[in-house]
Amino acid sequence: INELTSPGARFGVGVAEDADVGSNSLQGYELEANKYFAVEVKDSHDGSKFAELVLRHALDREREQSLQLVLTALDGGDPPRTGTAQLWINVTDANDNPPVFAQDRYRVSLREDAPPGLTVLNVSASDADAGTNAHITYGFGETPAKVLQKFIIEAETGTITLKESLDFEETRGYTLLVEARDGGGLVSHCKVEVELVDVNDNPPEITLLSMSNPVPEDSPAGTVVALLNVEDPDSGENGQVSCELSGEAPLSIVASPSGSYKVLVLAKALDREEAAFHELVLRAMDGGDPARTGTARIRVTVLDVNDNAPVFSQAEYTVRVPEDASVGSVLVTVTATDADEGLYGHVRYS
C-alpha cells in the first residue's frame, strides 16, 4: 500500500471458510488492535461473509515500513471456534520528503593564492525516502556568472572545487547557492559563504602626482618639491606602507595631513655650484612577511640663480709701465670668473 493512500481506502483480504452450517458457521472477523486499519465484515451474494481492511489514518513509510497484523475469523458456536491469518502489509514509498542539508549555511575561508583544483568543501544532504526518491544530485542554484567561473560542484558527491585563481583585491568573498534535488524532483537549498584571506601578493605602488623641476637653488628649506601617492591594495599589515629615501639629495619625506600622500620637501638649502642635480631613490615597503617593496627614481635639477659675484684672479695687480710706452700699448690683462651659469656667469669689465 502506498504511503500517500488516503484514509477511507478499502482492501479486500479474502474469505474464511467454515464447514459447519447455521449459527455454527462463519459469523465475523476481528483485527488485531492497531492505529492504522480497521476491519469491516461484508456479505457477498452467495451469503458468505468476507473481510475488508479500511485505512483509518495516513501511513508513513519513514516511520513504519511494514505492519504485521493478525486477522481472526469467528464462528457462532458455543464455545466459538476461530481461525487466524497473518496480514503482512508493506508500505511503499512516495516522494513525500525533500532532501535536507546537514547545514543551512556553510562557511569556509580560502587563501587568495589557493590553486585551481583545490577542494573547497563538501556539502551533504539526506532524503528520508527510498530508492530513486532518495537519490540526490547537487548543483548550483541561481548564481552570478562570475561566481560560476570560479567554482564547480560534483553532482553526485556535493564536492565544491576551485576552478579559477582568486584575487582578494577584486572580490573579498563569494556566496554560492547550492541545491540538492532528489529523484522525484523535490529540491532544497543551502548557502555556502566563501571568505577570501588576503596574502601579500602586491608590492606598494608609487605614483608621482606632481613635481617642481627644476628647483631654484635659493628655495628655502621646507619648499615642496614633489607630491607622491603611495598605496598597496593588500589589507591589514600587508597594505601598511613605510617609505624611505636613499641618496645624498637634501630632501625629506613628509606625510600629508590626510595620510594619503607623501610630500618631498627641501631639508636644507641647495647650491647649484656644488651639485647641478640630485638623484634619489624612494623605497616603499609594506608590513607583510616577507615584505614586498616598490621603488621610484627621482631626479631633481637645481636651477641657477645669480648668487655669485665675479671673482678676479688676483685682488691686486701691480703694473710697471715704461714712460715711453706708446698709446694703445697693452699694459696688463685682468681676468675674473663667475660660478653662475648662462647670463649670470657672463662677465663684463669696466
UniProtKB/TrEMBL annotation:
One of its GO terms (molecular function) is calcium ion binding. SUPFAM superfamilies: Cadherin-like. It is a single-pass type I membrane protein. It is found in: Cell membrane. InterPro entries: Cadherin-like_dom, Cadherin-like_sf, Cadherin_CS, Protocadherin/Cadherin-CA. SMART domains: CA. PROSITE patterns: CADHERIN_1, CADHERIN_2. Keywords: Calcium, Cell adhesion, Cell membrane, Glycoprotein, Membrane, Repeat, Signal, Transmembrane, Transmembrane helix. GO terms for cellular component: plasma membrane. The lineage of its organism: Eukaryota, Metazoa, Chordata, Craniata, Vertebrata. It comes from Nicator chloris. This is PCDGH protein. The keyword Transferase does not apply. Residues 1-101, 102-206, 215-312, 313-350 form the Cadherin domain. It holds the Pfam family Cadherin. One of its GO terms (biological process) is homophilic cell adhesion via plasma membrane adhesion molecules.
